[in-house]
Amino acid sequence: IKATVIGPELSYNKEFVEYFGTAPGESHILMVNLTRSVKDVFMDSRVDNEDSKRVAYKVQNFFLCNFLNNRLVSKLYSFYYEEFVGNGTVFKCPIRPGIYYLKNSLSAQIVPSFHPTGKFRLTVRLKSEKSANFSAELIWRYRV
Questions:
Q1: How far apart are CA 84 and CA 29, in angstroms?
Q2: What are the residues whose beta carbons fall under 8 Å from the beta carbon of 2, sequence distance 6 or more?
Q3: Under a CB-based contact definition with an 8 Å cutoff, are residues 128 and 42 in contact?
Q4: CA triple 98-104-105, angle to 5 deg
Q5: Residue 56 class from Cβ within 10 Å (0-12 exposed, 13-18 middle, 19+ buried)?
């Protein structure tokens, strides 16, 4: 399967994050400057078909701390963690203030072989409470 990933769109609020964007001088590395400790982290993720406007995949309020503290909880998320984080940065809850680095690229290998063709958007929102607004949002557009 051939997939083309179009760069990410990043947004964040300043409640927990001072900066979330490309690292200075490094287009393939994202830098996150976390200013407050985060006790709990919830993740919403979804894949939308941009042509048909249909939702292909959706998970809401996934309690990320269980996974971060034991990555054996989910093989699927472990694969994505290694693909996106996998650079020596280790996230465990509570996540302490500091500067963290992530990969600013997703390889075509993360697209499963059974993925339908078309234009898609992967949206990942991280938040500190189930009902809270997102603290950080990442959107990747890709074509299969």
A1: 10
A2: 108, 144
A3: yes
A4: 150
A5: middle
Taking Cα atoms as reference points, which of 92, 144, 126 lies closest to residue 10?
126
pLDDT in tens, the chain (144 residues): 678 888 789 999 999 999 999 999 988 889 999 999 999 999 999 999 999 999 999 999 999 999 999 988 888 888 888 888 866 778 899 999 999 998 887 666 777 778 889 999 999 999 999 888 899 999 989 888
CA 90 to chain centre: 14
